[in-house]
Amino acid sequence: MQQTYYRPTFVRINLTAIKTNIQNLKQMLPTHTQIIAIVKANAYGHGDIEVAKAALSAGATQLAVATPEEALRIRDAGITAEILIIGAAPASFLQKASELNITLTAYSLEWLKAIQHFKRSLKVHIKIDSGMGRIGFVKENELKEALIFIQQNSWIQVTGVFTHFSTADEEEREHFDEQAERFERLLALFEVKPPIVHTSNSAAVLRYPTQHWDAVRFGISMYGIAPSPFLSKNLPFPLKEALSLETEVVQVKKVEKGTPIGYGAKYKAIDEEWIATLPIGYADGLLRKLHNQSVLVKGKRVSIVGKICMDQCMIRLNEPVPLGEKVVLIGRQAAEEIKIEEWAENLETIPYEICCILSNRIPRIYSE
Ligand SMILES: *Cc1c(COP(=O)(O)O)cnc(C)c1O
Predict the structure, then answer these.
(1) What CATH architecture is 15-224?
(2) Which atom of ligand 1 is nearest to the CA of 205?
(3) In a mutational test of the pocket of ligand 1, which residue from 22, 36, 38, 85 has the highest number of ligand atoms less than 8 Å from its CB?
(4) Which positions are catalytic?
(5) Structural domain boundaries in the chain
(6) What is the pLDDT of residues 273-311, one digit of tens each?
(7) CATH class of 243-338
(8) In 3D, which of 43, 79, 357, 216 has the Cα closest to residue 18?
(9) Spatial distance between the Cα atoms of 227 and 235, rounded to a whole number of angstroms
């Protein structure tokens, strides 16, 4: 049942866009290559359960998350697809992982030793650190030792092996090639190749469409966002953005020249101006540093003025508008568009971070 919302501030998620991105990727991949939909961090702020369902219906065959809690949410929703936790899961989670068919990442000898007592069936993917410097096996002898350990503990079922690239989104490819090479060197130590070998994130799969093993991990670009400015200029197919952020005008006032607006009274109306209040603020993810970001009203860009408050902000209109006038902060309105990339540039960060800062206070509304 659809919940009733009172505040007119919404994140709208177009699930068809997500499905289209998956279908377009699928068409590009060899038929045996599976798509693992990355739904960590509440599906990059898009809503984990809804996105997981849409992704699976569009051809993704597995899911991946970062934490045990994220995996449990997916199982609690009744989704039975394979789930891989790509982050470090503690030994205290083994029982649940085994019961609920959640695959864990085996990333070090210490981790394997810490789970040694378990002795009930458990699926793992082995993580190779080929040059990212975070979790994973780096050295050949350490991996060899781990493989022997696993042989001796046959309740540990290795269903996959993977690595992660740190520079696949950049033009320069030397480090990428080095990582691919190092990964293959360590992969050669497996007597039997695990069923699913996977290396590519969105950037790697979009950039190097032929080298993908058995599965790819599709994250940011499943949501229609290019992993980097370099990749946005070099995409094999157009990405469709799924997310927009909208609100409505709750008050409009005509103010005289010099009228102070917002905390600190730092902004003063430059002339006689139409100032509107919007019910969205930094507690929603509209960070104070976005004070010079524009928003769309009647298909035109207008500026935020004054300091952004916790729950509200003010904009300067070109003309008076009725209460309830639609305002787009991210997304398209008529011929204009504000992309997540624009916020990212404005905040000197990456689009990934923007997806994660749109707070859970904003309801997500889904359309097909
Ligand atoms: C987050 C993550 C991904 C997804 O990366 P995108 O750039 O969003 O496609 C893939 N693999 C691992 C290990 C990750 O942590």
Answers:
(1) Alpha-Beta Barrel (3.20)
(2) 9
(3) 38
(4) 40, 263
(5) 15-224, 243-338
(6) 999 999 999 999 999 999 989 999 999 999 999 999 999
(7) mainly beta
(8) 43
(9) 10
Mean pLDDT of 144-163: 97
Task: Quote the ligand 1 centre to 46 CA distance (angstroms).
Answer: 15
Q: Identify the CA nearest to 339 among candidates 257, 248, 255, 220.
A: 220
Please give the number of the atom of ligand 1 that sits closest to the Cα of 168: 7
Three-class secondary structure assignment of 138-184:
CCHHHHHHHHHHHHHCCCEEEEEEEECCCCCCCCCCHHHHHHHHHHH
CA distance 243 to 330: 8
Q: 12 C-alpha vs ligand 1 centroid, how far in Å?
A: 23
Question: In a 10 Å sphere around its CB, with 0-12 CB exposed, 13-18 middle and 19+ buried, how is residue 159 labelled?
Answer: middle
Residue 348 C-alpha to ligand 1 middle, in angstroms? 21
Residues making up the binding site for substrate:
134, 310
Pocket of ligand 1 (CB under 6 A): 38, 40, 86, 164, 201-203, 217-220, 227
Identical topology for domains 15-224 and 243-338: no
pLDDT in tens, 110-132: 999 999 999 999 999 999 999 99
Q: Is the pTM of this model over 0.85?
A: yes
Confidence band of 3 (pLDDT split at 50, 70, 90): confident
Which pLDDT band holds residue 2 (cuts at 50, 70, 90)? low
Cα 136 to Cα 128, 146, 161, distances in angstroms? 5, 12, 10
pLDDT-derived band at 1, boundaries 50, 70, 90: low
Q: 71-112 pLDDT, tens per residue? A: 999 999 999 999 999 999 999 999 999 999 999 999 999 999
Residue to mutate, 201, 206, 232, ligand 1, most ligand atoms under 8 Å from C-beta:
201
Per-residue pLDDT band at 316 (split at 50, 70, 90): very high
